[in-house]
Give the backbone structure.
Amino acid sequence: MLSLKQVHHIAIICSDYERSKKFYTEVLGFTIEREVYRAARQSYKLDLCLNGQYIIELFSFPDPPPRPSRPESCGLRHLAFAVADIDVSVKWLAAQQVAVEPIRVDEYTGKRFTFFADPDGLPLELYEWAQ
């Protein structure tokens, strides 16, 4: 049997590197672990951490093709982040000019959640998770 331990990272290709870098660091609060420019690929690679844990590789490539997410299509549906207080998180995003859907309640867990998008329209979710 394959012994998976955890998710190591999530790779995201963006269309505007500086805009996405600002969004993931200044709006979502990720910290930069490493940033490199790979001249042979004309590509940036930005390693981002959340609470000291490596989570996201943000890439830029020249002219990446768009990937449809609406209507929902086969493949990765969204990336979800746990938050302690969804109301505070939604207010923060709104203050940063990020459109957020109305908060909903998961019918099975009773937990509150909502969706918003990154600068390229990648669906992101906030899921209220008190620990």
Q: What stands out?
A: Strands lie at 10-14, 31-38, 43-50, 53-60, 79-83, 104-105, 112-117, 123-128. The mean pLDDT is 92. The first strand starts at residue 10 and ends at 14.
